[in-house]
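Subject: Inhibitor of KinA sporulation pathway (Predicted exonuclease)

B.,
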Amino acid sequence: MPYIIYDLEFTVSRNTRYSSEIIDIGAVKVTEGEHGLFVSDSFHTYVRPSNKSVLSADTIQFTGITQKDIDAAPLFPEALNQFIAWMGSESYYMCSWGPDDRTKLISHCRTHQLDVAWITNHNDLQQQWSRTVRKEGKFRQLGLAQALELCGIEFDGTQHRALDDAINTAKVFMHQFDQFKLETNCAADDEGITSKVVYSSSTEDDDKDSPFGNLAHLFKTKE
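Prediction pasted inline below.
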């Protein structure tokens, strides 16, 4: 079955009245062919936030997404329908770099009273490969840029743009495919899932190329 490698980008807000919202969905479909794995299709859509449709300066600076991009975008329910339709009716694995994308998808679906049963066979590639690479010493998550460097692959595109990050995650996935042990699961079977802090304030050196670490630095420069 195909592998859906996807990435999300969120709004950046310091206002506690508003939680971060999905504004960018990008994905590629990785398929097994006669000569191995290859990217067979791609998907992209911007998403217009429901609570606060005007992007903050921090969001624009961090993601490069403009207000014009958002004004012409569908709201989350419509964007999600497009994404699910693109994934197709065949069984699939869903893979992301880190746990936050899955958490935010579930949170948004519950906010909009949408089913989560389509979130199936979800795997966190970052966690799996970080543990494989760093078998000794203190465990720390590898950023996507670090993972690409270890694979000898250059980052293609712009960081913090959903489709570009999904494409680069797929490169790591295909390069290290034998190292991943994909699990089967369904979000509808989970209980008590709560939203997690999306952007970490970590300043560890190992997080220097992490989008969440970069965002923390961005905040510090403005304070």
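The chain has a mean pLDDT of 85.

T.
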